[in-house]
Amino acid sequence: MTGTPRRAHSFFLIGTAVDAPDNSTNVPATQPGLATRAFKNRRFQSGWVFSLAAFVIFIAWPIRNTVLVCWVYGTEAYLRDGIRVLPGEPIRFSNGVLAPELPDIVTGFGIFLITTIGLSVALFLALRLYERHFLKPASPR
Predict the structure, then answer these.
(1) Dihedral of alpha carbons 29, 35, 40, 43, sign
(2) Tens digits of residue pLDDT in 56-83
(3) Contact indicator for 38, 127 with CB cutoff of 8 Å
(4) pTM of this prediction?
């Protein structure tokens, strides 16, 4: 055989070696998806961090406070007796009792992780869906 030798990769399928042709030179270069490009942009990253912070502070944290009261005292204490979490540190309930550490830590980390991971995955999937349905594919060169 003359010229450049072809490299072959062996794949083992149920004890049988199968040679696959080397397609490394025939594979067109593809650009990363819209979601990957967006998350690599510094301005987008900082805007997303500020959006997440605002969502956690103004929406998720009040939900966390409700969950904390319901965990420690039950739903009747929250709904009927009106026990709430007071602003400030240390975390205190409206009846004057300090919040137990374990429920405080678990609800804080839980609501933060659920919110940030959930919204990031939702944004990633929304960008992928937008790219798939509304952006025209790049023409081959």
Answers:
(1) positive
(2) 999 999 999 999 999 999 999 999 999 9
(3) yes
(4) 0.66
